[in-house]
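Why this split exists: single-chain examples teach little about how molecules sit against one another. For that reason, every record in the complexes split bundles all components of an assembly together and asks for one structure covering all of them. Below is a record exactly as it appears in the raw files.
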Amino acid sequence: MSHSNNRPFAERLQVLSRNLWWTWNPQAQEIFSELSPLVWERSNHNAVEVLREVSHIELAARLHDSDFQKKVHRILEEFESYMQSTDTWASRHAAHLKNPVAYFSAEFGLHESIPIYSGGLGVLSGDHTKSASDLGIPFVGISLFYRNGYFQQQVGPDGWQQETYPLADPTHLPLELVTSDEGGRLLNSVEIGHSTVFFQAWRLRVGRAVIYLLDTNLPENDQHFQGLTAHVYGGDVDTRIGQEIILGIGGVRLLHSLGVEPSVFHMNEGHSAFLTLELLRDQLKQGADVQQARKSVTARCIFTTHTPVPAGHDRFSSEMLHHVLGRFWGETGLSHDQLMSFGRSIPADPEELFTMTVLALKMSRAANGVSELHGRVSREMWKDLFATDNADLVPIGHITNGIHTPSWATAKAHEFWNKRLGVDWTAKLMDPHYWSKLVNGDLASDEELWAMRYGLRRDLVEFARRRLRMQYSRAEGDVSRFVDHALSTDALTICFARRFATYKRAPLVFRNLDRIITLANDSERPIQFVFAGKAHPRDNEGKRFLRTIAEISRHPQLIGRVVFIENYDMNVARFLVAGADVWLNTPRRPLEASGTSGQKIVIHGGLNLSIMDGWWREAYLGANGWPIGDDTSEPNLEAQDEHDAEDLYEVLHEQILPEFYQRNAQGVPSAWIKRIRTAMHSLIPVYNTDRMVAEYVRKYYLVP
Ligand SMILES: *Cc1c(COP(=O)(O)O)cnc(C)c1O
């Protein structure tokens, strides 16, 4: 028996609620939802809120229910043994990695109740952290505490996105204020322009990993700086650079004040690249010359780039940098030109802006893109920086992104696989042999897989109806009649959900609207669509795309057959990735560096229909989903859109519809199920973050 068993249940439950381990363990979630279904739902599944609501007296009484008590006991034992276990993948494969990996990211998507992410980059960081915990890798994340988070989305009757920013109360989140040895809150500061900006930090526990969220909301700061960390990617360029100074420079200072000596600094995207300047300053202060200092920094840093568009990289003018970093940089004794040279491809070019990606690339011992194609695109993109015409010589590799499968599998999917594979399937995600068991029906018959598909599709349909009722109840006039019959549990369900960045081309599938109207209204073989996604508040083009989808969802012949679910977040995502028969992905090649949402569907028996971009370009093997277009791109964007849309319709018409609606005597689409099996055994053991993090360890974290 472990020592913690003597502690009262209430205390152990508190500890559990404040460790996000519960976010990938559905039976732990069940405890909280059972304690207070109302608060659980109302708080977007916040375990801390539930325990705030339930008094000690009530908890003690509820635990008199022996079934409930047994369940709580079992989960606590499981959690505590996870936390204490020393026999991990890392203990076997990365024992040299003693000091933590410090992973810097501007956003972390860990759970819907913690709104400190905007999209795929954040979700990737969150999934990376969870797998680092599962694999037993010493790991510290650094990000900001965005008190107002990313916005909540509503769509007006005119189809235009509206944004609100509810204020989060840290005491209602699983956050713990980081204190100093004396017990008060630990304060650090950075210099921004002529001001000293103080920040505190919040500790967030993710299994065995820890994330620190930096927060400038302090009375010590000018009003103006108190709100610096309030919004995810909020405000203008001043806010942007200020946030990046807190994240990078502040992050290093925080780790230093905590006595954490990272074995490696991993910059997830360029936002945190100022961290290298702080490391450099530290070396210079200790007496190193520039050469030595730079060498020492480079030896400790690695960088992952995510952005294949030049405009997507943060760039700052020389004047701006001088203004905000002048005082900080002055301490190094180096010139402003020297600073600028670290952020320029051509150091002597006075016109060139300071680029965070360039800084990160120059100051890292290794760098990578996030899919094979993206690695290649990045090498091409940064040829100048490495002074070569031969992209093959550019030292940027690739590690293809994955997902933390246990977090994305719904409770129903967990139950399905627990029953058939055993509860340890979540520990076998890197083993292709293990998943090859799904090739035939020995473990899960066609009928059982089809039953799961139906159950998950129904869950999505019912979720969508609940959400649509809420959405339409706001609108004037009685449009809510259709809601109870919106979507069908029998129809082929195609989902599209992601940020409404224009390169993702949400409206592409509606390019020929008449065709879609015909297909959606086919009484024998109907298709239906579920859309979700937020446009960045300043992206009007993205908002116009969203309005197009909103308008189509109100078209008299498509209403209830094309639906838009507001306020895309990780909860909405989980319903969609589970319920989708087909996951549609239509980025403009090669702009989707990896994409991960299509990876979340596989464990649920969904199939991908995607442009040959990002992860799908290397994952598509011929029978595990469908491609749109081929491995080429046209320079003429309009022609490319037309070409891709036509190809999409053809695949839909010629392959997807016949295969989905071709049923055997048991009512099961055998060819479809066969394709699901192929997708499962070819994709599950590869496109997950256990494999991804293990690859980071082997290629980049362990110094050769
Ligand atoms: C997975 C996920 C994403 C990333 O989707 P992509 O299609 O890879 O861009 C974005 N937002 C949320 C909420 C997600 O769960």
